[in-house]
Each structure stands twice: as C-alpha cells, then as structure tokens.
Amino acid sequence: DKWNPAVIALMLYAAALLADLFQWTTGVTLNAIGEVKFTTKVVMVRGILNFAIAIPLLYVIGFNAVPIGYVAASALTGPFLLHRLGKGTIRRTVRGIGWTMIPIPVALVLGKVSLLVPVNIVLKTFVSAAVVCVAYALTVWFIAPTDTRQILMQWMQRLLKTKPHVSLSPTSISEPASI
Q: What number is the average pLDDT over the span 140-150?
C-alpha cells in the first residue's frame, strides 16, 4: 500500500514512452537532414516547459506533477518536430500509428480498476498485472490493422508450433516418420 501513490506516476511515464520514442526518432531524423539547430531549440523548449509545468504543480499535487509536466511538454512540442518534416507528416504519422495509442489507456484504466479488488497486496499485484497484460493484448488484437493481426498470428503460430503429429496407421509404420 505504501507504493500505491507511485503507481499513477509510473502509468503516466508508461503512457508517455511511446510518444517520446517517436519524438526522439523524429529529432534524429531532422538532425540527419541538417535540422540540428531547429531540433536543439525544440528540445530546449521541451525541457523548459517540463520544468515550468511541473514545478508549480508540485505544490498542488505532489510528485505526480513531474510526469504530468513530462507528458504535457512532450504533447506540446511533438507536433513542431513532425511539422518540420513537411506538409502532411502529422496526418500520415497519426493515420499509420494512431491505433497504437488506444491499448495503453485501456489497459491502464482496467488495471487501475482491478486494484479495487479486496484481496491481499501480493495477489492484487498479480491480478492487476494480468489484467493490464490481457487488456492490452486484446485491445491490440481487436483494433490493429489486418496486416498487423496477420503478422501477430504468424508470430504466435511459430511460437506455439509443436512437432508434427505422427500417425500410427499401418501404412505409416512401415515408412520412417518425418520429423
């Protein structure tokens, strides 16, 4: 129970991680095409915004203000990076990966709800982790594009593949089994 207040901060950081990944990838791309000065300015503004949002909120809501500042600064500066790559970049990026933003909040909300189950803390931990994993996996499965689901299905088939079944019929006994 003493760690429960930190769960919200961890969930916020987890939610921000995907956006952060794309922002840093976009920043590296901009650096590679000679936009180092612009990228540096955006990164500096992002850092300043992070502190400017988090520090005043610290007095109001406590340590959870730090991840809130981080998420807000990322949300405010990310579009500038994408826009610099050219007209339509934001639309093309969101169209292609927008669906990946849905499973995280669904899993987080259901995981938070599962913490309300009145069981001991050890069992609660495992139940909550299981709920988050299953909710995330099912949400991805149901909303992912068809090609992504096909890739996931092929991966699962390879992962779960067992040795071929050997028949015990009279004709197969005389021939060597192929394994």
A: 88
